[in-house]
Specification:
heterodimer, A: 361 residues, alpha+beta, 6-stranded mixed β-sheet, globular, B: MetI-like fold
């Protein structure tokens, strides 16, 4: 089901132009990902109404036209709860006052209570503080809570973690994962940090220089060879699996992906939980036959689907397990020696796989 | 204090109060508009608003007197609408005072509005606040001090005006005679005791008001 229809044209001087059309899903998290200057924030500002695109553009939420055909709905009638890079809390109001400000102007009654919002974001202890007494991370938590309490039809987050240090990001990312699952509000998330995107997003819009490079489910896009995500060193597949077993003796846990078992450093997730794992392409190598004397634990049979050159000396390979895909980055020389062609059955040796941190449980 | 003096004080306070009311009512949207635009036309309006700061009040008074004459457009329109003559009346004083004190209200408000962070208003808009709501719930609370300052300056400056009031008010006791013109009268007729009372009263009033303003500003800076 599609919620948001975008057909945008924005021309700003000679330096910047944006041209894209797409339809965003009405559920889950859609990430807008791309380098700085690619137009992510411009898209978001067109959605919340703070920026009007050029004539001929069209923005519509389900059947309701926000921009186009002579209509232009102002921001205060769109119900797009927005969290900016800077928290933008009202300095004359306490945290409690900031939350109530949004609550009094609610666009619609949200399917969650104020109590829940305060709990998700751990705001109880902050209610009587004023914005100038808060750390950047605390302020951003309040801003997210405020946007949620406005009863939004869509929650738009514009690089909400960009101004925070690494330590402050983790708990907020965890809370956002939780909110994405519990709040039933669709989320549009702008970021240029691949880690945030792979943890949160269900769908991905890849922007480059004001155009849409690719659009689709995150797991699928991460397995493709022809997008900015697969460039050079950063190429990595994201797979989803179920925590199956803990081998306390060796400090390992297993994750079952497409019926195959992957060993990971032990974590304390309960068995049966679905988790994402990120496997960098440079940590995956290929064998024609199953090695029997390797120190590498994770050896997965796979089908070679696709190959593409990556940099001068390397090839990037896409390997299918059963449904999900792995990426492997090997030298062109190895590929030639192994005489690899699409369709081959191979064994992928996975040197390391990092479980993407989950939310608080 | 004799009754004549009380009447003069009453007319003065009434004029300053009514004038301040209109100053804030008209000056606020004007200052808002001026703070949001940077056109040549805007600069021209700013210059006109600031004119009373440099013009001799008698110049303004002279032109107003001509405009308010019963055969002039403003005077005629007023007489048709209200049935009374405009020149040498209390409403004429209010009109003159509003024009004369306008920069004292518009300038502090304009400065406050242009320092107001636009991102806060954008945040308010995405939370469902329309422009009037934004003004009431964000702009007003954040610029409250500037409103107090603008109102006080407008009030004090109206109490202290002389030239315009003399030209268009006619110095009629009980109607258009205010402290500054009454003082001039007493001096003319050599009633120095009463003149002393009025002059000293005005000095003390102005000093107390300005002191209170500076104090509250200093308190804000040191906080």
């Amino acid at each position: 089901m599609n919620l948001l229809h975008l057909d945008l044209r924005v021309q700003r001087g000679d330096n910047f132009s944006l041209k894209l059309s797409c339809e965003l899903s009405s559920t889950g998290v859609t990430a807008l990902y791309g380098p700085s200057g690619s137009g992510k924030t411009t898209v978001l500002s067109c959605v919340n109404g703070l920026l009007n695109p050029d004539a001929g553009s069209r923005i519509a939420l389900a059947e309701e036209v926000w921009f186009g055909n002579g209509t232009c709905t102002p921001p205060w009638r769109r119900g797009v709860g927005t969290v900016f890079q800077d928290a933008r809390l009202f300095p004359h109001l306490s945290v409690d006052g900031n939350l109530s400000y949004a609550e009094r102007r609610q666009f619609r009654a949200p399917p969650y209570s104020r109590e829940q919002v305060e709990q998700w974001l751990d705001l109880h202890a902050l209610l009587n503080h004023f914005p100038h007494q808060l750390s950047a991370g605390q302020a951003q938590r309040v801003a997210i809570g405020r946007a949620l309490l406005s009863g939004p039809r869509l929650l738009a987050l514009d690089e909400p973690l960009a101004n925070l240090d690494r330590a402050a990001r983790q708990p907020i990312l965890g809370a956002l994962q939780h909110i994405a699952r519990e709040s039933e509000v669709p989320i549009l998330y702008v970021s240029h940090e691949i880690e945030e995107v792979t943890r949160l997003a269900d769908d991905l819009l890849l922007l480059r220089a004001g155009t849409l490079e690719a659009h689709g489910p995150l797991l699928e896009l991460c397995g493709r060879l022809d997008t900015a995500l697969s460039e050079e060193e950063q190429a990595a597949a994201v797979l989803e699996g179920e925590v199956t077993e803990h081998e306390a003796e060796f400090g390992l846990s297993t994750l079952t992906i497409d019926g195959q078992v992957l060993y990971l450093a032990a974590d304390n997730n309960p068995e049966g939980l679905r988790r994402r794992v990120r496997i960098p392409a440079r940590d995956v190598s290929i064998c024609r036959s199953r090695p029997t004397d390797s120190s590498i634990l994770n050896i997965l049979p796979a089908t070679l689907v696709e190959m593409a050159p990556s940099g001068g000396a390397h090839m990037l390979l896409r390997l299918r397990l059963t449904e999900q895909h792995l990426l492997a980055r090997i030298t062109r020389k190895s590929a030639a020696q192994l005489q690899l062609v699409p369709g081959d059955q191979v064994f992928a040796q996975v040197k390391s796989a990092a479980l993407l941190p989950g939310d608080r449980l | 204090m004799d009754e004549a003096l009380l009447t003069v004080i009453w007319v003065t306070l009434k004029l300053a109060g009514v004038t301040t009311f209109w100053l804030l009512l008209l000056g606020t949207p004007l200052a808002w508009w001026l703070s949001r635009q940077h056109s040549r036309f805007g600069a021209a309006i700013e210059a006109v608003v600031a004119l009373p700061l440099v013009l001799p009040p008698t110049v303004l008074g002279f032109y107003l007197l001509i405009a308010m004459a019963p055969d002039a457009a403003l005077g005629q329109t007023w007489e048709r609408l209200s049935g009374e003559r405009l020149a040498f009346s209390f409403p004429a004083l209010v009109i003159g005072s509003v024009l004369y004190s306008l920069p004292f209200v518009v300038q502090p408000l304009q400065a406050a509005f242009s320092q107001l962070p636009k991102p806060l208003l954008e945040a308010a808009a995405t939370l469902g606040a329309n422009p009037i709501d934004q003004f009431r719930s964000v702009v007003l609370p954040l610029t409250r001090r500037s409103f107090v300052l603008a109102g006080s300056l407008g009030f004090a400056h109206t109490v202290g005006e002389f030239g315009v009031v003399l030209m268009i008010g006619g110095n009629i006791p009980g109607e258009t005679q205010v402290l500054s013109t009454a003082l001039y009268d007493r001096v003319e007729s050599l009633q120095f005791d009463q003149a002393h009372q009025m002059a000293a009263g005005l000095v003390v009033f102005s000093l107390v008001l300005l002191y209170a303003l500076y104090r509250s500003n200093g308190w804000r800076l040191s906080r």
